[in-house]
Amino acid sequence: MLDFRPIALVNGILLATLATAMMLPALVDLALGNPDWIVFATAAGATLFVGLAMTMSTRGSAGNMNVREAFVMTTLAWVLLAVFASLPFVWSELSLSFTDAYFESMSGLTTTGATVITGLDHAPPGILLWRGLLQWLGGLGIIVMAIAVLPMLQIGGMQLFKIEAFDTSEKILPRATQISGSLTGLYILFTLICAIAYHLAGMRVLDAIIHAMTTIATGGFSSHDASMGYFESTPIEVIGIVFMIIGSLPFLLYIKAAQGHRGALYRDSQVRLFLAFVLIFSLLAMLAQKQSGHGVDHGFREAIFNVVSIMTGTGYSTVDYDLWGPFAVALFFCLTFVGGCAGSTSCGIKVFRFAVLYANISQHLKRVLHPHGIFVNMYNGRKLPDHVSGAVMCFFFLYFLSVGVVAIILTYAGLDVMGALSASATAISNVGPGLGPVIGPAGNFSTLSDFAKWTLSGAMLLGRLELFTVLVLLLPSFWRH
C-alpha cells in the first residue's frame, strides 16, 4: 500500500518554493508600475496555502520513501507544479486559456521552450521573468533528479551514474544533501556570470537575467518573438554557445574539477563525445547552409549556434534554418533527439546512451565474426553491466515508439505528417521549436488545437522524466501492492 504522506510532504515543500518564486516577478511588476503584481501575489498566496496544507497533513510521517512512492512523487510533482505555475498566465493581462497556460508552464518547467504566446516584445515584464524563472527552476530540479532520483529508480541506464554520485569509494562530498547544496550554488554562480556577460555584450538588465536563466537551464524561452535573432549580435551568440554547452555538461564533474580534479571533464567519455558531436554537426550544418546560398558571411557562427541550441534542447534560434534546404531540415530533425550529457540540464536521448549503443553494436559484430571470442563492453574505462546495456536498449525502443505514437495522435488532431512527427519529437526531446512554417523556428504552437496542446504537454512530461518514470504508473501491477 502506497504511503502518500511522504509524497505530499515533498510536493508541499515544492509548491511552497514555487510560491516564493512567484514573488520575484510580483516585485518586478510592482517596481515598474505594472498591475499584474497583484496577479502574482494572489497566485503566490493560493500556491503557498495548498503547499502548507499538504505539508501540515503529513505530521507523524517518518518521511521515508520507497521506490514506488518515488515514482509517484516525481511525476505528481511536475504535474502539480505546472498547474499552479499556470495561474499567473491565466490571470494576467495576457488572459490565456487554462490549456494555453498549462502548456506554457509545462514547457517552462520541463525546459522545453515551446510557446503559445505571441507579442513577447510587448508582454508584461513580470510574465517574461516568470517564464525564465520556470525554466531556471526546472533546470535545477532536473539536475537534482538526474543525480538523486533516476539512478535509484534505474531509469534507462541512469543507474550507471549511481556509483559516481553516491558510492562510498568515489564520494564527491560526504552526503547527498551537500551535493545538492553545492550544485545549487554552482548553478546560481553560472547564471550570474552568464547574466553579467549578456549585459556587458549589450542586453538590457531584464533581458540579460531572463536569457541567462534560460541559457543555463538549456530551456530557450526568450523575451522576444525573434528569440536570439532579435539582438543580431556576435558577442551575444558566442556567450550563448558557451553557456549552453556549460549547461549541457555533467554538473558533478564541475564539482570534481573545483575540488582539484582538473582533468575530470576531459577524461569523461560522454563529454568528449558531446563536443565531437557539436563540431561534426556544426560543420555539416555550415555545409548545408553554404549550398543553399545562405549565411555566406556568418556561416559557421550561425551553424554552430543553432546546432548547439537544438542539440542541447535549448531551442533558441537566430535564423530560419528551414530555408537552408532539405539536408539541413533532415539534420536538425536528427539533432532533436541527441541531447547533452547525463547529470546536466539538457534533454533528449543523451550522448552516453549513444556510446552504450555503439558499444553494444560493436560487441555484437565482433561476436558474429568470432563466435567463440569473449568481448567485454566498456564505458568510461569500466565494465558495462549487462543490465545497464539492456536498460539503454529498452530506452531507445520506447523513445522512438513514443515519438511515433504521439505523432499518430497529433495527425488525428489535424497536423500533417511532417508537422506531427516534428512536434512529437521536439516535445518528447524537450527542444522547443520544430520544423515547418507553423511550429518551426519562425513560428510557435499557438495555432494548434487544444487537443494537440494537451497531447504535447503530456509528451513534454514523458520525455523530461525519461519515459519510464511516467509509463510505469500505467501498469496495473504497480498499484496492486
Task: Summarize the structure in words.
The protein is mostly helical and 481 residues long. The protein has a domain at 1-95. It is 64% helix and 1% strand. The chain has 20 helices and two strands. The protein has helices spanning 4-31, 37-56, 67-85, 87-91, 98-109, 125-153, 162-166, 176-200, 205-216, 234-247, 251-258, 264-267, 269-292, 299-311, 326-338, 351-369, 386-412, 417-428, 450-464, 468-471, and strands at residues 378-379, 382-383. A two-stranded antiparallel sheet has the order 1-2. The longest helix is centred in the N-terminal third of the chain and has 29 residues, at 125-153. The chain is globular and about 75 Å long. 52% of the residues are buried. The model is unreliable at 163-176 (pLDDT under 50).
Summarize, please.
The protein is mainly α and 481 residues long. It has helices at 4-31, 37-56, 67-85, 87-91, 98-109, 125-153, 162-166, 176-200, 205-216, 234-247, 251-258, 264-267, 269-292, 299-311, 326-338, 351-369, 386-412, 417-428, 450-464, 468-471; strands at 378-379, 382-383.
